[in-house]
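Troubleshooting: if your tokenizer reports a length mismatch, compare your output against this known-good record of 884 residues.
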Amino acid sequence: MTLALGTKLGPYEIVAPLGAGGMGEVYRAKDTRLERTVAIKILPAQFSSDPVRKQRFEREAKTISSLNHPHICVLYDVGSQDGVDYLVMECVEGETLAKRLEKGSLPLDQVVKFGAQIADALGTAHRSGVVHRDLKPGNIMLTATGAKLLDFGLAKPAVLLATAVTLSAATQNSPVTEQGTIVGTFQYMSPEQVEGKEVDARSDIFSLGAVLYEMLTGRRAFEGKSQLSVASAILEKEPALISTVKPMTPPTLERVVKICLAKDPEDRWQTGREVKRELHWVAEASQQVPAKAWPVKNARGMLAAVAVLAVVAVTLGVVHIGERLPEAAVVRTFIPPPDKTTFNFNVNTSGNVAVSPDGRRLAFSATSTGGKHQIWVRSLDALAAQPLAGTEGAEKPFWSPDSRYLGFFADGKLKKIDISGGPPVTLCDAPFGRGGTWNRDGVIVFSPDDRSLHRVSASGGVSTPVTKLDVARRETSHPWPWFLPDGRHFLYLAAEGIFGGLGAGGSIRIGSIDAKEESKVVVEASSNAVYAQGYLLYLRESTLMAQPFDCKRLVTSGDAVPVAEQVQHNPGILLGVFSVSENGLLAYQAGAEGSRLVWFDRSGKQVSTLGDPGIINRLHLSPNRKSVAISSLDPATRNSDIWLYDVTRGLRTRFTFDPAAENEAIWSPDGRSIAFNSNRKGHSDIYQKASSGEGAEELLYADNLDKAPTSWSPDGKFLLYYSSGDPKTGQDIWVLPLTGERKPFAFVRTNSNEIHAQFSPDGHWIAYQSDEIYVAPFPGPEGAPVSKRQISTGGGAQARWRRDGKEIFYIAQDNRLMAAEVSIKGATLEIGAVRPLFGPLSTGAGYQYDVSADGQRFLAVVALEQPAADSLTLVQNWKVGLKK
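Known-good structure output:
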């Protein structure tokens, strides 16, 4: 029945409805005698119509009302009026655990805290002879003072356990008190409840285990399509290991839950007090270093264990053999990648290693031998890293300030995930993420699209710009933000020139989340920068430098000094592989710059190499596939030039000699000329020169924006290029006619970035990269092709055609090379199956691979394997080394 507002039940006046369910309706009411707010629960009619049940209910209610515990909802009174039976209870403000679980699993500290409170409440009730019988998330209220148990120990409607048909058709809530009948909610019942046997306190312990399991994992311990299948699972099956769902769960906590869920009551914890004690022990142990290492199976694991334990020991100032290290000790250790995986730091989309602010964990991207690409988390008090479920294809992780969450980029979105488990949460759009940072006020600053930085709430929403590209400085992108301690200002890289080009310059600048405060240059650099313990850390070539920095005045205050040499640097995205925590733990990957050209077949098997190693970026095969043009960086001068390789003999010759930077060499269809860009006039313009190297260079087109040529039409009349630096539209694809006035016109110019355009072999179509790989007819309408066809799904880069036009290749979001079948019939284009070939491949600002005429072999730029590059170096007390 529904009560009207103002209705009186004895001295209680109904104020507002609070909710309704199978066990009755609940109202907020006013106790007119004591002037306090209470909750009134109207009981189902079964209680009034069954004298035996009503008598038992009243007897149990008296017992429950005597319970006095801070985490048990107090039962004040029991009454009956005009055939309406009701309970008067404490009015508890908050949300039920069931409602909270709709958002996903709970953080570990909350699971332990609330679990101990519930266990303590159960212990008190059990010692008073009261068994709850229906412990579930819906009967647990989360309040400002902790967890509160509701509906404690009351008799419920019965469903006889007569047949399997009865069990299958039973409603979700079907508890009773008589022996031989079901009492409780199916998903949280103990085996003895399912069998209709007499229950005791240990049945509540089983239900508590099911609740703890769901709090930890975000999923129920026992599930099924019907009540029969759920009951069968409770009686016969074990739930999935928590560690497989929530890798960061402490083994001690998993043990507590496992014992709660033992099928035999004799094998469970026997009292709520025991569970409370164990949970308190878990909480205390999580703050301590393990007394001894677990056994390892191989030398690599043993080395990792010793290394990690050494770092933790130094963090606490104590080593395991009982000796105290000198306070001024610098300790270096090594962390290998997870078994059967490789780090992705030299792949442009994966991003950096990220040390948690508290210095207790590392987050990084790694790829398994099967090609699965995801984020892993390595706790420094554990012997192995664990993959984060839900982060497949994710990249560029960064930490929340409390070290509980990771932000990352995936599927063209900025997302976050609780490292203790639960699904990722999408925050906003980010088509081409280039790093993020998170302050203590819940603001995230990130690079969504290779252009200006944006801010967004850590709860999600629409992002807004906080930086603006400085066209006068030829800025093309603002990647890799890092918050300073005040939470208002942040460091970022202001990249200049074609983003990621070899020899590209830039500066570290300081911005503000207010977006009104003018940014300022801190230091010239061409990589990311971070701040910790009074220093800026950034790369100068491949050396990691530390420079004193005044956070109040926002200026450097001394000379930069080296911290580590030969630090891995990805010039394609201007990113150094290093990170630092607030308490002084530094992580970096060693390895000098270097790459080489490698031939692969369609299965990814390495067929051969071409030429000598060097600092190579961008490559384009000649039309006859006998030569390849590359961009190569001179490590001494940091200047980029174009070189030509003879594919058959492996000999290379220098093609450009100007002291400016030259990149992106594109062959004419007859192979007699090469177009390239050069910044010799202060911005990257397009030149051409005879491929033989003879004769003078000719300026094809110049304006005040940076440009990179990408494809020459088969008839030799047009050149495709993309420009960078337009503050309104970013990167756009243009067509440069090579006859007449040579006045370029836009092919694709939208608010999204468009790059890497390629003519089809017949010259009637253009494949290009935006948020996906698209194909549009040429010439088509100027500005934005209305008849474009989408090739990729989930992102793609560096599209290339097979010479016969029957396939388009591109690099997918997970860095695998893909092949899409294409059929051109006159003015129509049909897209067939899209298949993965192999990977990972690099995805820099320019083309990192090319394809043979028959589409059976691929020439790719591959980073050199450095002796120490298969591990991460951890440095504790890195500042001490600066004094030496």
